[in-house]
């Protein structure tokens, strides 16, 4: 009997001290994308094995909520370049349009963005422009 009480006590302590998974601090958006509800995340804000194998489109940002949320909750995708504490990894300047004064990374929105079309290849490859605009308050991470 004493052993059972001890085991139960240890198990209760383990449950009470286990980390609680917080709700994500971003929106998954809606399912209005052309490729939503196909079992693959098409939102280019995410990365991981739960992503589609087709090219990512800026039109799909926030428009594949169900697929991306299921993949996120299963640990198959994470927000691209964003740590759990919200710290942003701006990446590098390896993009074709880096250091031209406009942020080309489709993870961001705001007046600091370029006026040209956004490409998947530029995600995390325009660090100087994006970080400068972010620090100046001209753009924010495209979370919702």
Descriptive account of the structure:
This protein is mainly alpha-helical and 144 residues long. The protein folds into 2 domains: 27-80, no CATH class; 85-144, no CATH class. Helix content is 24%, strand content 6%. The protein is built from 3 helices and 4 strands, in the order αβαββαβ. It has helices at residues 2-17, 65-73, 127-135, and strands at residues 46-47, 78-79, 108-109, 140-141. The strands form 2 sheets. A two-stranded antiparallel ribbon has the order 1-2. The protein has a two-stranded antiparallel ribbon with strand order 3-4. The longest helix has 16 residues, at 2-17. Mean pLDDT is 84; it is low at 2-23.
Keywords:
disordered N terminus; two-stranded antiparallel sheet; 2 domains; 144 residues; mainly alpha
Note the topology.
Elements (H helix, E strand, L loop, with lengths): L1 H16 L28 E2 L17 H9 L4 E2 L28 E2 L17 H9 L4 E2 L3
């Amino acid at each position: 009997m004493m052993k059972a009480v001890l085991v139960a006590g240890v198990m209760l302590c383990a449950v009470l001290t286990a980390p609680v998974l917080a709700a994500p601090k971003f929106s998954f958006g809606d399912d209005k994308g052309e490729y939503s509800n196909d079992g693959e995340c098409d939102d280019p804000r995410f990365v991981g094995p739960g992503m589609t194998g087709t090219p990512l489109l800026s039109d799909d940002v926030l428009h594949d909520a169900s697929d991306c949320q299921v993949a996120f909750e299963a640990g198959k995708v994470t927000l691209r370049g964003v740590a759990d504490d919200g710290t942003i990894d701006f990446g590098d300047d390896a993009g074709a349009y880096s250091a031209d004064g406009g942020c080309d990374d489709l993870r961001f929105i705001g007046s600091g963005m370029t006026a040209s079309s956004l490409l998947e290849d530029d995600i995390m490859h325009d660090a100087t422009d994006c970080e400068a605009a972010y620090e100046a308050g001209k753009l924010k991470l495209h979370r919702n």
